[in-house]
Structures are given as structure tokens and as C-alpha cells.
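Our preliminary data section would be incomplete without showing what the modeling component actually yields. Below, a chain of 574 amino acids is followed by its predicted structure, encoded as C-alpha cells that our downstream tools consume directly.
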Amino acid sequence: MKNINPSTKTKTSALQQFTNPARLLSIDTRRTDKLLRPFIAELSAAGLSVPTAAADIADRAYVDAVLALLTHPDCPSALLENLLTIETAALPENAESIDEAITRLLPNVNISNDPLERAMELFFLHPEELTRFRPAVKINSHVQQDQTSPANLNTENGTLNTGSDLKTENRTLNTGLITGPCSLITLLNSTATTLSRFVVLPAHAADTLALWILHTYAYQLRDVSTYIGIESPEKRCGKTTLLTVLAELTSRPVVASNISSPAFFRVIQETKPTLLIDEADTFLQANDEFRGILNSGYTRKTAYVIRVANDPGLQPSDLNTENRTLNTGSNLRHFSTWCPKAIAAIGRLPDTLSDRCIIIRMQRKIGSEPCERVRNLDGSQIRTRCEELIKNHTALIRSAQPIIPRELNDRAADLWEPLLVLADLAGGDWPERARRAALALSSAAQDHSPIGSLLFDLLLLFTQLPDNKKFFTRDIIEYLASLGSRPWSPLTKGKPITDLWLSAQFRPYGIAPKTVWIDHQSAKGYATDQFDEVFRRYIPRSEIEAKKAEIYELCKQRDEVKPAESIEPDQKAA
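Predicted structure:
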């Protein structure tokens, strides 16, 4: 077994377990690789490479290669800091703290009883939990003496008193967040945890909002600025609290419980904010102009309104906003509506607006869901780290083309693309978490499609009577009335279904009633082939999946699905 070179031992002397050949042999090579991989770029720049294991179980050649890397003079300091953090967390005196964190954050994960393995698992999934165990100072590749004493460290002003016996370069105090290549994962985990501390959120909302908060610092690098729609069935469900938390964490927040159209586009033009709109249900429904402006503002190319400028000294040559000069000789001006927005309302947002939002549906918290008071939140560290990380990854964010789940429709794909860029850049489990959230929240949003539900009910009628190619309007109305409460029921406004109401629902799709003959009788009605294209294009997949699941459950209850022949609801069409 290769021994550690004494000339390079100084920078790794604090490490005990990761420089112990016998200990390295006991660690799954996939875990060791996961610790080394984030530093590939730095290692390559130093002429080093990550060892490749022949199997999951380490052999002596692999261990020798890892030791050679860790003891090399150019081994990245951030890597050594991470390893020392894990070793410190695995000390016996920290066992209770680590066990509590695992119980709280990873209740369903089966983890070894080995202290180092437990610390590594927590580091991989929730690295922010290990910040308290990080070295007091950053390890530097050119440290010539490893010993420090309390006299060397001035904790009041955050500097080191480096006497002649301690020579360092650029040594700094830990700021509380894990630094180095894993810091973006740490930031997202920390943000998601912070959100959950102060607000009771539905599934996937904390991950989504953590990505969106980071997006507010990077939205100008992409072509879509993602909207968040916050809905609740009634008051006191946490909407305003959530907006308050977002105001503490996002970039240049502007909070408004009511805002006029002119103020809306002027504040965006002048401050490029993150706009947080509360109580939208009190003024949005009756304001067509404001809804139209909101609808336009999520894509860069369409995020403009044209107004007459009130500045009497304004000249046509001054009216250039991103090369959009109006050569009219008048005081017409383009105003930008381009910025991230979170819009909160009791009830549903207007359909055209909700279609442009990632919808988060809040629920009133119960006694077993305690939250901290928002007044205890200080988001300054998260804000600072967001700004720094976006600056460091500008080129990657601007050019990235993430893989979009094919289940998302075009609008949902546009909304999620900027967030998936950030998740992929972070790495770890965030790409999977982000796509899981995208599918879950998009599916939930599609569940609220009144006209899609109406079309689906009509499809079921046609399917039940496959030999009928025509239907009288009165028969369709009788069938729909027999269904009771359905997602499309609010469209009737509590009134009976009539032929005029039905034709009004179909008119936007180019479908109109006509005279049809059935069994020698004629009346107004519809032919089934009038709906073929509309069914294909406008029935949400969520309606089909729900019906398939319903049929599957009915079949199981009737013992019509035998164990050997059982199928999952998504494996066979209804």
C-alpha cells in the first residue's frame, strides 16, 4: 500500500479517515466518486484525474490512486474542506446531532449505522446541515504549517493574525454556507428548507419556489420569465405569509396588494423587480387591461406595452428601449413588462393567466403543522449567495438547453425551462426533484380545465354508444345534466343547461349545431366526427388518466382483473 508523501502531508494532516487506506477500502467506490466528481474541472486544470474503479468495492489500486490525489500539492482545497467537514460530523460527540438531522430530513432512507456513512449521506442530500462542522478557516493548498492556536484567529474582525510561524494565502473565515462546486446544491437545499420552516407548503412547492427564487436573479439570461400563481380556497391559507417570505429572498422585490396598469409597467421599466402581487382576486377579474398586460409579460419578445409618454421634453430619439425605437415623431414609448412575478389570489386566477403560471395551491395549516414566525427570517445570506452564484454561472445559464419532460405541454415546458436549467446546473438530486415537481404541479393545473372536462364527458357519451354517429342536442343536454357536479358545472352559473349554452361552449372550436336525422326524426344536433380534432387537441391528459384509474379500481373491486393479468391504469387506454 502506498504511503503518504511527507512533503505534501501538511495539507491533509487534519484528515484521518479519508487518508486511511483501510478505511478507504471499506467505502463504496460510488460514494468516493460522488465526493470527487464535482471537482473534475479543477483537478483537470492541475493535471489530475478522478480515479476509475473497476467495481463498487474498492481495490488497492483504486485506494492508492485516491490517496495520491488527496495528497497531491494541487488537490483542491474545497475538496479537502468537504472531507474534513464529513469527518468532523462523524465524530462521536456529534452523533446525536447527526441522528436528529437524519430522523428529521431522511425518515424513509435506509442508512448504515457507520458514523462516516451517515455523515456522507447527510452531506450528499442536505449539505447545509453540516455547515456547523466545517473548518473554521479554509484549507489552502499552500499552507506551510498546519498548527493554529486561538491567538492566530481574530474572530471579531474575521481575519487571521499570521505570525512568522504560519504562512497562508487568502485564508478566510467560513461564511455559513458550504463553498466550492457543491455550493449551488447547498443554496437550493437551504432555500427549500427555509421556505418550509416559515410556510406550510403543498408537495413539491418548496423545491419549485427554491428554484424560482434563484431564477429571479437570473431571469434576464433566459427568454421566459416564470410566473408563480398562488391560489387558496379561502382566507388564512398562508398566501400573504408566503409572499412575505419571498420578498425576503428574491431579487429586488416589489410587493403590492393593488396596482394600476400604468404603475405596473412603469415600476418594471424603472426597477426590473420581482413583482409580488397580493389580493389579486379583488381587482384582477374586472380589469381586462391589466390581465392583458400580465399575459404578455412572461416572454421577453412580447413583454412590452406602448403608451404616450408624459415627459414634454422627450424626443423620438430618446424612445429606444432595447433597440425598439418608434420613429413616429410623437411621444409614443415602449414600456417593458418583463420580470418574474408571483400572483396570489383567493379562488382561481383567470384561465389565461393561470395557464402562464406554475400554480401552487395553498391550504390552511392545522395544529400539527407548526411554523416559525416570519419576523425571525433573515434572508440576507441567501440573497448574497444567489447573486454570487448567478454571476459565476452566467454563460452556462444563458446557453443551457435542458431536457424537457415530454409529458409537459408547450406552455408548461416554457415555464419550467428556466428552472430546469438551474436544477441541472446544481446537479445532485435536483434535476430529478425539479422534473418530478414539474410533472406533479403541471398535472394538478391541468385538472382545472372546465372545457376540457366537458369535452371529455362528451367523448365518454360517444364511446358508450359507438354505433351512434349523430346526437340530438336535447339528448346531449339530458346526459350532461345526469352527471351532477362536474369541473365544468361553474360554467353554467347555476342555471339549467340549454342548447344556446351548449353551442356557446363549442363555438370557439369551430363547432356549430346543425340539423341531423336519427330514426326518421330531425332536430338540431351534432355529428360525432365534428369533435374528432377537438378531442385530440383539447382534452387534458389528466382527465384520461383519472378515468383510467377509476376503471381500473372498479375492475379490481369486481374481481375482473386477475392477478396474472392485472394491469396498471397507465398501461391500457380506458
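Residues 237 and 364 are 4 Å apart (CA to CA). The chain has three domains: 6-142, 183-303+338-365+377-447, 450-539. Preliminary results of this kind motivate Aim 1 of the renewal.
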